[in-house]
Amino acid sequence: MREKILVANWKMYKTIDEGIELAECLKEKINGRPKIIICPPFTALSNINEVLSNSELELGAQNFFYEKQGAFTGEISPIMLKDAGAKYVIIGHSERRNIFGEANELINKKLISAIENEILPIFCVGEKIEDRQAGQTENVIKRQILEGLKNMSRENVEKIIIAYEPVWAIGTGLNAKPEQASEAHKFIRETLNEMYGDKLGENITILYGGSIKEDNIEDLGKMKEIDGGLVGGASLKCDSFVTIWKKLKSAKNI
Ligand code: PEP
Questions:
Q1: How many A from CA of 36 to the centre of ligand 1?
Q2: From 19, 36, 66, 160, which residue has the greatest number of CB atoms within 10 Å?
Q3: pLDDT tens-digit series, residues 162-193
Q4: Active-site hit among 127, 165, 185, 225
């Protein structure tokens, strides 16, 4: 179902106490739509889950391994995420792809496992600057989608949130122009329509991510292809994130 959503990706920031303080502030100031999904580091998941109980704010994780359990030292399973209260998980973030070498094949296994274990994926795709400069943006995104969603049924793909995150915009302060982001979102919807037919692309929530800030969310949010945002750096301060949420709310007239 297509929804308006703002995701907070805390990356590798916030101790448990710092996370609780931020989550309490967000809980106090945010209510209703756009929907909020907070993705703290693993160590704070349970505590943030407690803070968010009795609120509309939802909890997600930033990563996991696709097996249910086993001898996989240092990894976290989907069962464990659910146990800690996570309903969503980010999969295929460019920092996982580029720093930790996660390829489309692994990302596909994670997407399938998340759905099987009833955790809703936030599936990230996006091109590097050299891809864009070489005119390869659409080819790269298409490959990430085709290989990432391999062997997945339409019914399962309908449960996924997609985040278009151009790698050159993440953590750089250089956001995509609203028109550039909108074009990529449109292309993603068309690709999904080609793969699954019957206008599936129009029913999927697609978020933009990459240096979202208080001063650019309004213009991005006004684009009808863009259903919301995935926010990294600017989600680490309560006031900035609340302002971004309020501006997205007004841009979307909700
Ligand atoms: C992200 O973490 O996916 C992200 C978009 O980060 P930032 O907002 O800091 O660019």
A1: 15
A2: 36
A3: 999 999 999 999 999 999 999 999 999 999 99
A4: 165
